[in-house]
Design brief:
- This protein has one domain.
- By secondary structure, it is mostly helical.
- The longest helix is centred in the N-terminal third of the chain and has 29 residues, at 17-45.
- Helix 8 runs antiparallel to helix 11 (212-228).
- It has helices spanning 3-10, 17-45, 61-66, 68-88, 91-96, 98-122, 130-155, 159-173, 175-191, 199-209, 212-228.
C-alpha cells in the first residue's frame, strides 16, 4: 500500500454530523427551558384571573381595580400566548400537524393582539415613572407590529420570514417572564448589599430590561437562521 493510500485510510474526512447533533441538542434544551419557564409564569400570573384584590401588586391595587377589564384581558391573553408560543416553534409538530399549527397560530395572533392592546391601555398607569410607562408602551407597539407582520408574511407564503417575525413576536411576549425574573434578581442583589437604589428606580429599568435584550437576541438568532436556511 502506498503512503498516499495509507494516509487516505488513516485520516478519514471529519463527519459533520456531530456538530449538528450538538446544535440540535442545544436547541432542544433551550426549547425545554423556554417552555418550562413559560408554564411556570403562567401559574404565577394566573392568580390574577381570580380578580381577588389580595393577589394584586399592592402598589398598583387601586389601578388594577379601576382597570380590571383591561387587566383581565391582559393576563388571559398573556397566559394563552405563553402556552401556545413554544409549541409553534417545535418543527416536528409543525410539519406533522399542519392544520393544528394553523389553528393554534390563529389563536396566538389573537392572544398576542389582545395582550398588546390591553397592555397599551395599562401602560400609562405603570408603576413608578414615565420611564416605565414608555418602556411598556413601546413593548405593546412592538408586539403588535411583529405579530401582524408575521401574519402578513405567512399569507404571502414567505415562510422563512414568517418564522423570523414570529420569533421576534414571541421574544416580546416573553417580557412577562423576564419581568418576573429581573424583579427577584434585584431583590437578591439588594438583600446582599450589592445594589443600594430603591425598587422604584429598579422597576423603571426592568420595564426595558424585560424585553429589549430578548428582542436583540431574537434578531441575532433569526439573522443566523435566515443566512443558514434560505426561504422555500
Amino acid at each position: 500500500m502506498s503512503t498516499l493510500e495509507r494516509s487516505r485510510t488513516a485520516s478519514p474526512v471529519a463527519d459533520p454530523r456531530p456538530p449538528r447533533k450538538a446544535a440540535a441538542r442545544l436547541a432542544a434544551s433551550g426549547w425545554l427551558v423556554m417552555t418550562l419557564c413559560s408554564v411556570y409564569i403562567v401559574g404565577v400570573v394566573g392568580r390574577y384571573l381570580t380578580f381577588d384584590p389580595d393577589v394584586y401588586f399592592p402598589a398598583q391595587r387601586g389601578t388594577y381595580l379601576r382597570l380590571q377589564l383591561a387587566l383581565g384581558v391582559h393576563v388571559a391573553c398573556g397566559v394563552l400566548a405563553l402556552l401556545i408560543g413554544p409549541f409553534q416553534f417545535a418543527r416536528r409538530l409543525r410539519r406533522r400537524f399542519v392544520r393544528a399549527h394553523r389553528v393554534t397560530g390563529t389563536l396566538y395572533v389573537a392572544s398576542a393582539t389582545g395582550l398588546a392592546v390591553s397592555g397599551l391601555v395599562l401602560a400609562p398607569t405603570a408603576y413608578t415613572s414615565p420611564v416605565a410607562a414608555t418602556g411598556f408602551t413601546l413593548l405593546g407597539v412592538g408586539t403588535l407590529f411583529t405579530t401582524w407582520t408575521a401574519l402578513r408574511m405567512v399569507v404571502a407564503h414567505r415562510y422563512a420570514e414568517h418564522r423570523r417575525w414570529m420569533t421576534l413576536s414571541f421574544s416580546l411576549i416573553w417580557a412577562g417572564v423576564m419581568l418576573r425574573i429581573w424583579s427577584p434578581i434585584y431583590s437578591l442583589l439588594a438583600g446582599i448589599g450589592l445594589v443600594h437604589f430603591s425598587f422604584e428606580t429598579a422597576y423603571a429599568g426592568i420595564a426595558w430590561l424585560c424585553w429589549v435584550p430578548n428582542l436583540l437576541f431574537a434578531l441575532w438568532l433569526t439573522r443566523r437562521t435566515v443566512e443558514r436556511e434560505p426561504a422555500r
